[in-house]
Structure formats: structure tokens, C-alpha cells
Amino acid sequence: MARDLIVTLNSGSSSLRCAVFARTRGEPEARLRLSLYDLPARMTWERRDAVTGETEVRELDPPDDPDTAQDAASAEMLRRLLEEIDEDQIAAMSHRVVHGGRDYSGPVVTDADVLADLEALSPLAPSHQPHNLAAIRDMAKRFPEVPQIACFDTAFHRTLPHNDRIFALPNALTEEGVERYGFHGLSFENVATALAETAPELARGLVVVAHLGHGVSMCALKDGQSVATTMGMTALDGLPMGRRPGALDPGIVLYLIEERGMAPADLRQMLYERSGLLGLSGISSEMRELLDSDEEHAARAVDFFVYRCQREIGSLAAALGGLDALVLTGGMGEHVPEIRKRICEGLDWLGVGFDAEANRTEARDLSSADARVATMAIPTDEEIVLARHADGLLRSGDADTG
Known about the structure:
Blueprint: E1 5-11, E2 15-22, E3 29-37, E4 43-49, E5 55-60, H1 69-82, E6 90-97, E7 108-109, H2 112-119, H3 129-142, E8 148-152, H4 162-165, H5 171-175, H6 185-198, H7 200-203, E9 206-212, E10 216-222, E11 225-229, H8 250-258, H9 264-273, H10 276-281, H11 287-292, H12 296-320, E12 325-329, H13 330-335, H14 337-344, H15 356-360, E13 374-377, H16 382-396
Parallel strand pairs: 1-6, 6-8, 9-12, 12-13
Antiparallel strand pairs: 1-2, 2-3, 3-4, 4-5, 7-8, 9-10, 10-11
Helix pairs in contact: 6-16, 12-14
């Protein structure tokens, strides 16, 4: 039986997504998409047939122990995947890995040495990297003949110019790797590719892409390449997120440790799990729930989020020296019209003209007739990027299928 399927795994802090792609003479073709999300409190199952479009969504029994939710999700996903496909058809498994550091600027077939390198980066992405690597190890053990390929969120930002990469710290630290890496690179890569296919003239211009999901970041693209981004050495920097604060005065961290006696582990837990929209509102990390709430703190959290988004868009436009297009993607960017509206209606000074009716109908082009800057909502698809990279390695012979 021919090994003609690529399986992608995208293991996050609160979800696990899996997709099956068929290898063709051209682009890998999606066959099936499986998701487990709402972890650790719940476990929501979604199955979508990528050919027919048929979708099934239902609640499963939640994990007994929140600390082992990802392990439970991984076991459940593998069981359900093998109900759908014959494992002997798998040519490669392609994994999202959040941090590649300085050494990994493209997809790579993992082995013990690679995994050790990536494990050393876990402190820089504690909410994601351990889950990413656990999935690779689990699949390598279960399918020893199948190459396990790592694709990095940081790789897309290796084009950042020097001034956008460094921090104003002693040079010795910069030389040791204390620098801006940026994240959500698979999403930005997908949007850049989609824009080049649908609006090539815009794609060659000055574009800000806003990935507005549970994690939030923005990227300035010039001719399709990353030249500035909001996240830094870790995924804590930049914009406020569901549970992370975004940009923060480092003196606050010193104050909490030195004056408030906060232990590093407690501080880490606060910054990664109890800040952002959740911390501001005291209600939820989910934007839809905050928009539906009558609580004053919920409204203030939404207002702060919108303000920070507008401010960062202006900053990235300055880094580009102008702006031709604003692209919104990610969960909020694709599915929460009210957030798109609030962000864009405060950017008329920048030339963003927003079509409220197009926004209500969830059109892709949200630009008004007189807009100087195009505004678009483009769905992100990290899985197709994972599949493309795996297919490329297979074609080049750099991935041994056994």
C-alpha cells in the first residue's frame, strides 16, 4: 500500500488539531480535519470532512485531571484518527512547534538531538513547547517508521532586520540569543500565501496581518516577508491575549519578585494563565463572552484590547513606512465581526475605510469604496502550511519514509 497521506498535528495550550492530507502531483489536498478543544475544563470534539464539508461537533467527557488534559486529548485523537485511516498510508507526520530558536529556520525531521535542542527552548514557550514535543515523541513511538517533522512558528520571522530583532540589552546577551523571535509564523505564512494568490499586487506591498486568536500577535509584511512583529523572545510580549498580558514594564516583574515576594513559578503562572482578558475582566478569556457580558470590567477589557490593537497597527505601519492593506485572521479576526468593526473604525486616520455591511455578512473584502487601505478577513490555515512543508521534505528526499 502506498504511503500517500500526510498527517498534521497542531498541539496548543487548550486544543489539539489534526488534519489528513493526500499527496498529489501538486498541492496536498485536505481530506479530514479533527479537533479537540476547550481544554482543560471541557473536551469538545469536532470532525469535518474536508471534501464534503460535513461537520460533527459534540461534547466528550472532560479529562479527570486538568494537568493531564493534553495527554488525554492526544490519546483520544490518535484513537479517532486510526478509525479514519490506515496507518500504513502515512508518509509523514508534520507538527507545529512554537519555538525553533536561532538554529531552526525551516522544517526538519526530528531525532533525539533535535528534540533535545527544542526541549531546551521550553522555558521560552512553557504553554506550548512541552505539548508540541510530547506529541512528536508520542507519534514517533507509535509510528517508528514514519518521519516526524517539526515546523516552527518562529521560522517565518528570520527575515526580521537587525533593529527589529534586538533589544537594548548588553551585546553579550544578544550574541547568546536574547533577541526577538516572533510567533504565529505558520499563520502569517499561510495568510501571505493566500494574499499572493488572491491579490498579488497587495501582497507585494505594505501589509499588516493581525492574528487575533486566544494568542494574539501582528506582523508587518513587505513583499510577503516579515519585517516587524509584536511578540518578542517569548509569546508574552506585544498585545494583550486571552490569558497573557502582552507588553509589560519589566520593572513590574522586578517589583513583584523583590517587593511582593512572588516566586518565579507563581509569577510565570500569573503571566501565562491569569492575565490578559481574563485578568482584566475577572470573567473570561473568551472575547465572545466578554462582548455578551453586562459587567463593567468586561467592557473595559474589550476597550483596552481594541485600543492596543489600534496602537500596534499604527506602530507597524510606521515600521513599514506606509500601509496598503490590513488583514484580520485568527478566531476573532475571522468570526467576531464586532471586534473587526471596533478596531477598524478607529483607523480612518490611517486610510482604513470599513464597510459595515460587508462585515456583517462576513465577506472577505471589508473595504469601503473610498478606502485608501484595503481591509480583508482571510481565514488562517496552519495545517496546510504543515502539510506543504512535509510534502516539500518528502519530495526533496530529506525525509526518509522507510
